[in-house]
Design brief:
By secondary structure, the protein is of the alpha+beta class. Helix content is 30%, strand content 25%. The strands form 10 sheets. It has a 9-stranded mixed β-sheet with strand order 42-41-43-44-51-50-49-46-47. The protein has a 7-stranded mixed β-sheet with strand order 17-19-16-20-18-21-22, with helices on both faces. Strands 35-37-34-38-36-39-40 form a 7-stranded mixed β-sheet. β31 and β32 form a beta hairpin.
């Protein structure tokens, strides 16, 4: 009889040397020590005693018996399982090891010279949200010891009265109002029973400000006048006025707008890909996740993006997220080695993260989720803002940050609306198990930071598992592609967990639900019924399916390895019943109308107030040059590269424009664009506008300027018209005081009116109305309040993405730069100039005439359609000077600006005000004509011309006022990005990137190929290619599209198909192993995938036979490259291949990188030898690690297929030209007589010209990377 034993194994070093150095520096700084730190992986395993499997487990984990001693061990919190654990168990199961009950990864730290660790500051070593501290291996073992199950609790109001409810409200952090407590007391006393904690938690989440939007639905009285419209009514007015394209608004997880008929890549029931005509519409959603990001930036931001992705996926009967956006507002950064003159000392409560920590960890969290899920993040913004404290301890700022997460997706026209379901439909929970994380998040996010209990703050933050959400999305995608989807109703699980999602399903369907508690998947057996019902464990959806589809739906989930549970059914009795079989009771048994009943409507009565305005500063008293450098280096204006390159921007193959522009890949794009199809040039454009600093002086102007910024960002893309623009309006504001409420009301009224004037609609949005942080500092209360912060995200359909223009200057034509403005105003209120000089300007920019803005938009659009404008940049943060500089950065050229009518005393307002305006570049031969056309309606000024001196020269009436090197200006502009990369990543890489700016030999991206497009006969016999994926792979669609357009029959092959024996590789001519994050890369990049193959003899034999077959080819890309490299022992001639390890930068790197095709025998690269061109590169573990012997071997046998090169075509190891640091820039190799080729970059994402952020002007529909797929077809037909 076997027994369960606990094993502790020791693995490899946990961190790279540069990462460990960062950890060590932080620990020593926090504790005033000089300790040496080392760290190794530790694996805790609960296994049925079986010696046969133990060695296999050690081999798979690359671990051995514990030998070292550690004085600190960090691992998952008790009561949770990490994503690493669930994925590793999947790997073990798939290689036939069934006897592992639990497995978990810990970090074993050895910290020299540190005594009494439990009394030291360990905050930089772990995340309190998701991890716990253990000071011995014996303590670690307690992680596996189950706690006693926590019971259901009843709140005794029948004997103890309403005070018991008030106590529960405080102790549980329900954040209920007095009216709500009275409502509940009356309900339960009338039914003569006590409420359960599960019922109260459910009610509190469902009726929180986060979920019910009480302020936006409130009745308002302003200055004694009763307003007949709520804030929500004002927003809805915009859609009533302009209904063009709106399919669904305000009633689903996301808005839906009309698309068009295109060719969709369809996956049929036999798993074959083909293009079919279909109407694809657009989903729009933008969310915030502010409170969790303040408490714990990485998981807070990660689950912010993850939650928004679920909203999109759960729209209609199932939609598909396409491109994403991320934004952040924080207080002053206070970079350690780069303190700014406008930043004072830092004051904040201990429990919240610092602005710098938020901007180091938060963006990584959001990017990591998007990357692993497989959604490109192609747009964003970042604002840093904070004022000094006044005498009363009040300041403006973002101690409670804004973490914005949004995106657009696609939905088939036939899936726009959820169906009306009936009694006895099956209620399904799709996704991961319940864990004690994120409890009470809806309520916690509805109160100001610092006002809730600290332990409840930490309990309310969730933990992310993007690979699980990917599996859920695959199930949704498969169902959505059917003629009739099995999914008839779907709802994401977010705030309130199942206790909110399942009742919402019932309410929206006008039904009740009966749920069985024991059928809900749970990872922690100690959880109480309330915790199971209301926890906010991520990556879950609630579905309703017809009983007849149960078995077929189950098969889809099993193939995708997506966890699912049939937890209950719908009922005609309109109630929520949760039955606990173990205790034979109902933790929840309430009517729906009690949960969603008519609670008292909030009444808000305010009077307008006006603060005494301080006297305006004199703008001309500030040095122009110093102001210019300060403005360019302000985080809001400066390069956002550190936020962008960490995010995959090409996955899915549907991106037509990301943030980077031009051959030097400068992050100055005004917009993001997506494609609707792999065979169409139509798409969508997305822009952001936000001007919160104006709201301190004029909240109405701030919202008008926000929509104006969104429009001037979009103006470079020809769209169908202003009346086809749809807007998501996100409102972040404090609302406890009269002044704050008035600002909100004024801002909403202003945005509503201007959108109506412009014929723009707002079909979706979100509010977060607790943007305030309060705490006691040395016995004095301090308060940091955000100004009204309205973020406008605008989306519009695009007929032809190739017609769009960017700030990239044309340098091969004689041209002029023209300034176009709505009026002569140069107001400095709320400007970056005012902020960096610590000055006061009361009058803010504004949209004084909405019709003028409309006219500007339409006239510029006409000029673009006529191809009269070469380049364009809007004027926003930093003013005219910042826009000029950013345009110059795109081509490393200078500009001569001559303004003989401008007086010196007016230079600062002229160049630093942030009024609505544009800079357009036009051919000199068209200058006068365009000046005449635009000059009839707008203020038009010919600024000057480009120069080759690489300086920006500005002269006014009194002579020269500015002459500065472009390189010096760009260096200052990059300063923030460089500083944060130096702290966050490998500093040596950050140094190399900064130094590259000063390298005059660096000329950026270029193309040197002999590519010619060929005509494919799609009616001819087609070879078959297996588009291979494992759980967590996310790049199969673009791979299938490229092969299909090259003339293949592409077939979706999941590893589960091979493991089950349903598919055999012998049926295929080719094999394409796709990119992504198989098993979340828990055992190294591609490690789990390859070990699944190598430890299953039947599957291993299939692969070995395929690799040895002279008539087959294999392409491995990114994660597929990493996986195939691990199979080198069964690939002929691959013994010298490298392994792929973490990038030298210690960071995920997404770049459009220059590569050169080497001389090799690769059948896929035949005829491409010597070609050099850019390619999408996106990976965290792409460094090709060789022994010297293997490197010599692979070089001597011409097995190197692809190298990263510099602009002269030479192989390079310079970062970021070589984003992973591989020796000689090696990033692709070949073997098996050239039939097996693997590469880290992604040709399948850039096989169309439109998919590249820089492309040669002579390319047509396809980029030269299509040659790989043509070559595959030629090889297959001639083998």
């Amino acid at each position: 009889m076997s027994k369960t034993i606990t094993l502790i194994l020791e693995g490899n070093e946990s961190f790279s040397s540069s990462k460990l150095e960062h950890i060590q520096l932080g620990f020593n700084k926090n504790n005033n020590l000089n300790s040496k730190i080392s760290c190794n992986d530790i694996y805790l395993i609960s296994v049925n005693d079986d010696e046969d499997y133990l060695n296999n487990i050690k081999e798979i984990l690359d671990a051995d018996d514990l030998k070292s001693t550690f004085n600190l061990i960090i691992g998952p919190r008790v009561g949770t399982i990490s994503p690493w654990s669930s994925k590793t168990k999947d790997i073990l199961k798939n290689v036939g090891i069934e006897n592992v009950e639990n497995i978990e990864k810990f970090y074993g730290f050895s910290i020299d010279g540190a005594n009494k660790l439990d009394s030291l500051n360990l905050t930089n070593l772990y995340d309190r949200m998701t991890q716990g501290l253990y000071f011995s291996t014996e303590q670690c073992k307690e992680f596996l010891s189950p706690e006693q199950k926590r019971p259901l609790r009843h709140i005794d109001i029948l004997d103890k009265g309403i005070e018991e409810l008030h106590s529960a409200n405080k102790n549980f952090g329900f954040a209920m109002s007095t009216d709500e407590i009275d409502y509940l007391f009356n309900f339960y006393t009338s039914t003569q029973r006590n409420p359960t904690d599960a019922e109260l938690m459910m009610f509190a989440q469902a009726n929180s400000e986060h979920c019910r939007h009480k302020i936006f639905n409130a009745n308002w009285t302003v200055n004694g006048e009763v307003k007949n419209k709520t804030l929500f009514d004002l927003i809805k007015d915009t859609s009533k006025n302009s209904q063009n394209g709106i399919i669904s608004a305000y009633k689903d997880n996301a808005a839906i707008t009309a698309g068009e008929k295109v060719e969709r890549l369809n996956l049929d029931s036999a798993n074959n890909y083909s293009f079919v005509e279909d109407i694809l519409n657009t989903t729009i959603k933008v969310e915030t996740h502010n409170h969790p990001t303040a408490i714990s930036p990485f998981p807070g931001a990660a689950t912010g993006s993850g939650g928004e992705i679920r909203d999109e996926g759960a729209t209609g009967r199932g939609a598909k997220p396409k491109i994403g956006l991320v934004g952040f507002n924080v207080s002053n950064l206070r970079l350690p080695e780069l303190r700014r003159s406008w930043e004072g000392d830092e004051y904040k409560p201990e429990r919240i993260a610092s602005p710098l920590d938020i901007m180091i960890e938060g963006p990584i969290g959001a990017a990591a989720f998007n990357n692993e899920f497989g959604r490109p993040s192609t747009l964003g913004y970042f604002r840093s803002f904070e004022t000094a404290f006044d005498a009363k301890g009040n300041a403006y700022g973002y101690h409670k940050p804004i973490m914005l997460a949004g995106g657009i997706g696609e939905i088939r026209d036939k899936n726009n609306f959820k169906l009306q379901i009936a009694e006895d439909y099956i209620v399904v929970v799709l996704g991961g198990p319940a864990m004690l994380i994120g409890l009470g998040g809806g309520a916690a996010s509805s109160v100001s930071s610092g006002e809730s209990d600290e332990d409840l703050d930490f309990a309310s933050v969730q933990r992310e598992n993007p690979e699980m959400e990917r599996r859920c999305q695959e199930v949704i995608n498969i169902c959505s592609s059917m003629d009739e989807s099995f999914i008839e109703f779907i709802h994401d699980v977010g705030a309130g967990g199942l206790s909110n999602a399942i009742p919402e399903l019932a309410k929206d369907s006008d039904l009740g639900v009966y749920i069985e508690l024991d059928k809900i998947p749970v990872s922690d057996p100690a959880m109480s019924p309330m915790e199971i019902w209301s926890n906010e464990s991520q990556e879950r959806y609630v579905l309703a399916i017809h009983p007849k589809n149960k078995n077929a739906f189950e098969k889809i989930c099993i193939r995708e390895r997506c966890e699912y549970a049939f937890v209950g059914k719908t009922t005609t009795e309109k109630s929520v019943k949760l039955f606990d079989k173990a205790n034979n009771n109902y933790p929840v048994d309430v009517p729906l109308d009690m949960l969603f009943g008519d609670l008292p409507i909030t009444d808000i009565n305010i009077k307008s107030t006006k603060d005494q305005a301080d006297k305006d500063s004199i703008a001309s008293s500030y040095d122009f040059k110093k102001s210019a450098y300060k403005v360019l280096s302000h985080p809001t204006v400066a390069s956002k590269s550190f936020l962008i390159t960490i995010g995959d921007r090409t996955v899915g193959g549907m991106v037509a424009r990301d943030q980077f522009v031009g051959p030097y890949q400068v992050p100055v794009s005004n917009y993001s664009m997506s494609l609707r199809s792999f065979t169409s040039n139509s798409g969508e454009v997305v822009t952001i506008g936000e001007k919160p600093t104006l709201a301190i002086h004029n909240s109405s102007a701030s919202m008008r300027m926000a929509i104006a910024e969104a429009l001037t960002n979009m103006i470079g893309v020809p769209i169908k018209g202003l009346d086809h623009i749809q807007v998501s309006a996100n409102w972040m504001a404090p609302t406890n005081e009269e002044k704050e409420n008035y600002a909100l009301r004024s801002g909403v009224e202003a945005l509503s009116k201007i959108c109506i004037d412009l014929d723009i609609s707002i079909p979706v949005g979100k509010d977060s109305l607790s943007m305030k942080t309060k705490w006691i500092d040395e016995d004095k209360e301090k308060t940091v309040t955000s100004p009204l912060s309205g973020v406008v995200t605008s989306v519009a359909p695009v007929n032809d993405v190739t017609k769009a223009i960017t700030p990239e200057l044309s340098i091969d034509i004689e041209s002029d730069l023209i300034l176009v403005k709505l009026n002569h105003s140069n107001r400095l209120g709320g400007s970056i100039f005012g902020e960096v000089n610590k000055t006061i300007f009361n009058e803010t920019p504004d949209v004084d005439d909405p019709n003028a803005l409309k006219n500007l938009f339409n006239q510029i659009q006409t000029l673009i359609k006529q191809e009269d404008i070469l380049a364009l940049h809007d004027i926003s943060d930093g003013g005219l000077l910042a826009s000029i500089a950013e345009m110059c950065f795109t081509q490393k050229v200078g500009m001569d600006i001559k303004l003989p009518l401008l007086k010196f005393e007016d230079a600062n307002p002229y160049f630093f005000s942030e009024e609505i305006g544009l800079i357009i570049q036009v051919a000199k031969e068209k200058t006068k004509e365009i000046e005449k056309v635009l000059g009839e309606s707008f203020v038009v000024q010919n600024l000057g011309t480009l120069n080759n001196s690489k300086t920006i020269n500005i002269a006014c009436a009194e002579g020269s006022i500015f002459s500065e090197s472009i390189v010096e200006l760009e260096s200052k502009w990059r300063e923030v990005s460089y500083a944060i990369q130096s702290i966050r990543d490998n500093k040596a890489c950050a140094d190399e990137e900064q130094e590259l700016l000063f390298d005059s030999d660096h000329k950026g991206l270029y193309a040197d190929t002999t590519f010619k497009e060929v005509s494919v006969n799609y009616s001819a016999a087609k070879p078959k290619v297996a588009v291979l994926r494992e759980q967590g792979v996310n790049g199969q669609i673009e791979m299938a599209a490229a092969f299909t357009l090259a003339g293949f029959d592409a077939v979706d092959v999941h590893m589960q198909d091979l493991l089950d024996g349903d598919v055999n590789l012998s049926a295929f001519n080719g094999l394409a192993a796709c990119g992504g994050f198989s098993y979340g890369d828990v055992l190294g990049a591609g490690g789990g995938w390859s070990k699944t193959i190598l430890n299953n003899n039947l599957v291993k034999d299939q692969f070995e036979e395929f690799f040895n077959d002279q008539q087959t080819f294999t392409l491995g890309v990114c994660n597929g490259c990493q996986m195939v490299s691990n199979l080198k022992d069964i690939i002929p001639g691959a013994s010298a291949w490298p392994s792929f390890v973490k990038n030298i930068s210690d960071q995920f790197e997404a770049r459009l990188a220059q590569v050169k095709v080497a001389q090799s025998d690769s059948v896929l690269l035949k005829g491409m030898e010597g070609w050099s061109l850019p390619i999408a590169s996106a990976h965290g573990e792409g460094h090709a690690a060789f022994t010297q012997e293997n490197l010599d071997s692979i070089q001597s046998t011409n097995q190197i297929a692809l190298n990263f090169v510099d602009s002269s075509g030479k192989s390079t190891e310079i970062y970021p030209l070589n984003p992973n640091g591989s020796i000689d820039g090696i990033t692709g190799v070949t073997a098996a007589d050239g039939r097996v080729t693997i590469m880290m970059p992604h040709p399948e994402r850039v096989f169309r010209s439109q998919q590249m952020s820089w492309r040669s002007k002579d390319w047509k529909e396809f980029s030269p990377w299509m040659q790989i797929f043509y070559n595959a077809l030629y090889f297959s037909k001639n083998s």
